[in-house]
Design goal:
The complex is a heterodimer of chains A (330) and B (317).
Chain A (H helix, E strand, L loop, with lengths): L1 E16 L3 H10 L2 E16 L3 E5 L6 H8 L7 E6 L8 H5 L2 E5 L11 H11 L4 H14 L15 H13 L5 E5 L7 H18 L2 E5 L3 H7 L2 E6 L2 E6 L1 H8 L3 E7 L11 E7 L2 E6 L6 H11 L2 E7 L3 H11 L6
Parallel strand pairs in A: 3-7, 3-8, 5-6, 6-7
Antiparallel strand pairs in A: 1-2, 1-4, 8-9, 10-12, 10-13, 11-12
Chain B lengths: L1 H6 L1 H4 L18 H7 L10 H15 L2 H27 L9 H13 L10 H9 L2 H5 L5 H34 L13 H32 L3 H14 L14 H6 L7 H8 L4 H31 L7
Classes of the chains: A alpha/beta (330), B mainly alpha (317).
């Protein structure tokens, strides 16, 4: 049975438009023009218990709106949504007691308080019994290696340290569902790896359902078995990342280091991408020519020092996907 | 504080944090064991989250000693000026003045002591949350946002008033008589009954102040900015409370209306009760009026905040 059920969910905003310049501002005082923005347009999906789902899409696509509706912050214009049988915005208090939320761009911990005091306050906010709280807190502190951070005021933490604390803070009341809205934004490489590892372990070891939005495709590649792509308020794709890649950008790259200056290859199946001295980079479609055949043909007629095949960068796949669907902002 | 953990090990705990001291946010001590034994209610967790935010904000705000001292100094200065103005006014032959000079002086010192009960602005934390979009986090807490913010506003108002009022009352009712200026000081209430009624009225004053702060908060949520709401609030509150000019000095035609409106409960009613201008049944009736407005404004604010939240647009994506 699915834990999250979303049917035909739509959200429209009315935004006051203003013409440029002083004259425009004055006109706006007299007569306001409203523009309707469709943040979500009849979005439907289901998510099962224990899944780890990545929600991706360009800026302004509707990812955050989706998360905010699912977490009870926003009310949709129309459509149905149930999380564990509750409608988030109607039964908000009951609903939010069972979920955890992390917004990567904001902090839920109290800026001037040491981390541990913030945790204590959350214990009271969620009415977690003390014994239960002590156990889960110690477990999270060990899991996320927060021992040295607990006594520091939040404002003194680095972004990476803070994000680990934020995720722990969202787990203190043991939610079975957690929303992470851009948890790796602005983090350095090490901190990103740490956050990914923690999120993965929460999902694997504790069976927590995770819904993650991100612009870092490596988050998705490392974590999510399932990707929902949102663009311009609609769902563009819903499936595994491998399926997405195959459907969009089958192209592979072949890098060859020749024994002498790279020759001009007269082959219809390949496209030259770049050349640099003895190195040549080719693009080919494995459905037209298999990699071994291509390599065999090149090696047969040229002296080759080294050769390797690469899949296109994950960012390229996604960018191409957005382009194909016209998902980017205008 | 450090003792609490040792006395009640099951609740005080496993981590040494209770002993680290200087902790504004996390309430500890006698309250905890009783809540720990109580099973959390499924919705909202009973009173525990609200008590936690109240205690946290109270302790945090009480730490701002420099602000309290600076506030006291400013309010003392303006108190002296206002007393001098009243003295000049009465010396000019104000025969028909609606209250005696002594009462006007009492009214002034009380006004200075309780000045920061006046809800001139939205809760700065709430304004900042709305501006930054962190208000989204407030909505993912399993609490009634109105009650949560009310507890916060009430704690802040009380914590700001306590040190300032203590200093001001000490100055006006102890120091001034000692230096021989007792005539210009703050005398005690004329009777025990007046003192009791004033205490009740002052409690109502705090509750009313928080209810009005919450209305300003709602305007901030609805308009996404605190500037307009704060300017509007300050002008209404200063005039209608009687903080600038006691309501008794207003013309007969408008005075009954001014006395009936909610903001009169912030200054005019409690202070008139203090010096005996309102006593007996009229004092009880005025406290009843304060209570009526507290209930009415809380109901209004609760309803209005719910509506504003449904139309909330979270800034910054």
């Amino acid at each position: 049975m699915s834990q999250i059920l979303v049917e035909e969910l739509s959200k429209t905003y009315r935004i006051a438009e203003r013409e440029a310049g002083t004259l425009g501002a004055v006109k706006g005082l007299l007569r306001r023009r409203w523009r309707t923005v469709e943040a979500l347009n009849r979005v439907s999906f289901q998510i099962g218990r224990g899944e780890l789902v990545g929600l991706i899409g360009p800026n302004g696509a509707g990812k955050s709106t989706t998360i905010k509706i699912l977490s009870g912050i926003l009310e949709p214009t129309s459509g149905r949504c149930e999380v564990d049988g509750l409608t988030p915005w109607r039964q908000r208090i009951q609903h939010v007691a069972r979920i955890g939320v992390v917004f990567g761009q904001r902090t839920q911990l109290w800026w001037d308080l040491p981390v541990i005091e913030g945790f204590d306050l959350l214990r009271d906010i969620y009415s977690v019994p003390q014994a239960r709280y002590a156990a889960i807190r110690d477990e999270l502190v060990a899991l996320m290696r927060l021992e040295k951070l607990l006594d520091q005021p939040v404002r003194q933490l680095s972004l990476g340290q803070r994000m680990r604390c934020e995720i722990a803070a969202a787990m203190l009341h043991e939610p079975q569902l957690i929303f992470l809205d851009e948890p790796t934004i602005g983090l350095d490489a090490t901190s990103k790896l740490a956050v990914r590892e923690f999120v993965g372990r929460l999902n694997r070891d504790r069976g927590v359902t995770v819904i993650l939005t991100t612009h870092d495709m490596h988050d998705i590649e490392a974590l999510a078995e399932r990707v929902i792509v949102i663009g311009a308020g609609r769902i563009l794709a819903d499936g595994s990342f491998a399926e997405l890649r195959a459907g969009v950008l089958a192209e592979r790259r072949l890098f060859i280091d020749f024994a002498e200056d790279a020759p001009a290859l007269e082959m219809a199946e390949v496209r030259e991408v770049a050349r640099d001295g003895r190195r040549l980079e080719l693009a080919f479609d494995p459905r037209r020519i298999a990699a071994p055949d291509l390599i065999a043909r090149i090696v047969a007629s040229h002296g080759v020092d080294d050769i390797h095949v690469e899949e296109p960068l994950i960012e390229e796949v996604i960018a191409r996907f957005y382009d194909l669907h016209g998902a980017n902002e205008g | 504080m450090s003792g609490a953990g040792a006395i009640s090990p099951p609740s005080g705990g496993s981590v040494g944090a209770a002993d680290k001291g200087g902790m504004p946010g996390s309430p500890r001590g006698p309250r905890r064991p009783s809540t720990a034994s109580r099973s959390p209610s499924p919705v909202g967790g009973g009173y525990r989250p609200y008590a936690a935010v109240f205690a946290g904000r109270l302790q945090q705000t009480l730490q701002y000693r420099a602000a309290a001292l600076a506030g006291f100094a400013t309010q003392l200065w303006f108190g002296v000026i206002r007393v001098l103005i009243f003295a000049a006014f009465y010396a000019g032959g104000a025969h028909a003045a609606p209250m005696s000079l002594a009462n006007a002086v009492t009214y002034t010192w009380l006004g200075q002591a309780f000045l920061v009960f006046l809800p001139w602005a939205a809760d700065p934390d709430v304004a900042e949350m709305v501006r930054s979009g962190a208000v989204a986090y407030e909505r993912v807490r399993p609490v009634d946002t109105y009650a949560w913010w009310y507890a916060r506003a009430l704690a802040r108002a009380i914590a700001r008033v306590l040190p300032r009022a203590a200093l001001m009352i000490a100055f006006a009712s102890v120091i001034l008589p000692i230096v021989g200026l007792g005539k210009w000081g703050l005398p005690p209430p004329p009777s025990l009954a007046a003192a009791g009624l004033f205490t009740l009225s002052a409690i109502a004053m705090a509750l009313l102040s928080a209810a009005i702060t919450l209305l300003i908060n709602v305007i901030v949520v609805a308009t996404m900015s605190d500037r307009g709401a704060n300017i509007l609030a300050a002008s209404f509150v200063n005039l209608l409370s009687g903080a600038v000019i006691p309501l008794s000095f207003f013309p007969d035609a408008v005075r009954p209306w001014l006395r009936a409106q909610p903001i009169a409960g912030l200054v005019d009613i409690p202070f008139s009760i203090y010096f005996g201008g309102l006593s007996g049944w009229s004092a009880a009736g005025s406290i009843g009026l304060q209570l009526f407005w507290i209930v009415a404004l809380i109901a209004l604010g609760h309803l209005w905040l719910g509506r504003a939240m449904r139309r909330l647009q979270v800034q910054g994506g």
